[in-house]
Design brief:
mainly alpha; Growth Hormone, Chain: A; two-stranded antiparallel sheet; 435 residues; globular; 1% strand; 17 helices; 79% helix
């Protein structure tokens, strides 16, 4: 039993609450303060809850109806709703308490899994509608998360935060799918899926509760509905950054669901799929740890290039053979390379947002613009996937499709190198405009 305080909180939680109210000097010395650590905890809860069931939602849809189309439409609607939610909710986050948007995102994620439980095997008929609910959930959460992340980090500790975020996400992504695969394989299929969807629902509710220990944060000023359009017209840095984000999204939109599905189709085993994510996420965890420990901001361009080359080149494995072995080699390679690709890109884009005082005031609009870039690429990739698979699902057609979409990281690096050329990070972690 926790010792109770007069306020009714357990003593340990009261202490945590009080420590979060105190300003920390960590932001200025390259360390993470209490608010940053608590945000990381909320982040890992959200990602772990999603990882517990996220991959298996697609498998569940496939088992009900063995077609790519419902899964692709579900994913497309998720990204469409997410993008629109970012844009529409931006006004709320700019004018009011953004923490309520973060909590709403977690609550809607819980609602999504409740709907999946209620619908059961009828879920395929409502795949697109469920995608819209999922999209609104992730839109609310990630909009608020990214704005708060920007506010509590700076150029001196942003790479460290991203390294830890990736490390913890890899940990959750490593353990959660394995647990899901184990539970499903030890129970009848229906009961196993019902259990993991219920566990995800519970974790999202816990995340909502924990989020109340984050400070209430309000933004100032009015929300500009056309900010993204004007920024792309007037700012070359953001045009290139938008192209890079779209290149990243091009790959993520399709690979986000097709790889796990290919593993299940090849093995017909949820336990093997859980083992796959256990192994590949463990590799990613080690890579994120290394990036967080040794990565230097001045090396961003070449570190990102290494990651992009591996991620794009490894796709050629599928021209040789599509099997569990080749998929595992692919997953291990991507696990190693993705942190090299993503951490420099995330940090640089957020450095752009904080390039000057005027830019920082429009942080909400810039976060919306960032999401527009990612979702534009994701939706283009999924629409191309739907178009190609409507004509042919032959192995050669799918291989070429995956190969071309897999070039997205190289497109992203080509665009980001233009941004790297304009944005310099000095040895002390500060930033200056290189134009």
């Amino acid at each position: 039993m926790h010792q109770k305080t007069k306020s009714g909180f357990p003593a340990t939680l009261q202490k945590l609450w009080q420590s979060n109210q105190e300003e920390s000097s960590a932001h200025g010395n390259g360390q993470l303060d209490n608010q940053s650590k608590l945000l990381l905890f909320v982040n890992v809860l959200f990602i772990t809850a999603g990882a517990l069931s996220g991959t298996f939602v697609n498998v569940y849809l496939w088992k009900v109806k063995s077609q790519f189309a419902p899964i692709a439409w579900f994913t497309l609607c998720t990204h469409l709703a997410g993008s629109l939610t970012f844009w529409l909710a931006g006004a709320w986050v700019k004018r009011y308490n953004k923490m309520n948007a973060l909590r709403l995102g977690m609550a809607m994620s819980a609602l999504f899994y409740l709907l999946v439980l209620v619908l059961g095997t009828n879920v395929v008929s409502y795949a697109a509608a469920l995608g819209l609910v999922q999209g609104m959930a992730v839109g609310f959460f990630w909009l608020a998360f990214n704005v708060v992340y920007f506010e509590i980090t700076g150029p001196d500790n942003r790479d460290l935060f991203n390294g830890w975020a990736g490390l913890l996400a890899s940990g959750g992504g490593m353990i959660a799918p394995w647990i899901s695969g184990y539970l499903i394989s030890r129970m009848t299929s229906t009961k196993g899926y019902a259990l993991i969807f219920t566990l995800s629902l519970i974790l999202f509710v816990v995340g909502v509760i924990i989020s109340f220990f984050l400070k209430k944060r309000q933004s100032e000023g009015d929300y500009s509905w056309s900010f993204a359009y004007h920024s792309l017209r007037q700012d070359a840095n953001w045009r290139w950054a938008f192209g890079a984000l779209a290149g990243q999204g091009l790959r993520e939109g399709v690979f986000g669901f097709i790889i796990g599905l290919m593993v299940y189709i090849a093995t017909k085993s949820e336990m093997t799929l859980g083992n796959y994510w256990l192994i590949t996420s463990a590799v990613g965890l080690v890579s994120y740890y290394a990036v967080g420990k040794w990565f230097k901001p001045q090396n961003r361009q070449w570190v990102m290039l290494c990651g992009a080359l591996v991620m794009s080149g490894i796709v050629t494995l599928f021209f040789w053979q599509v099997s569990y072995a080749t998929l595992l080699i692919f997953g291990v390679a991507v696990g190693l390379a993705y942190p090299l690709f993503s951490v420099p890109m995330i940090s640089t884009v957020f450095d752009l947002i904080g390039s000057n005082e005027e830019s920082a005031k429009n942080r909400v609009e810039f976060v919306v613009l960032r999401e527009f870039g990612l979702d534009a690429g994701r939706m283009v990739g999924i629409l191309v996937f739907l178009m190609v698979t409507s004509f042919s699902t032959s192995p050669i057609a799918l291989n070429w499709l995956v190969f071309l979409i897999g070039l997205g990281p190289l497109i992203a690096w080509y665009c980001m190198r233009k941004v790297f050329a304009r944005v310099s990070v000095d040895a002390g972690g500060g930033k200056r405009d290189g134009q």
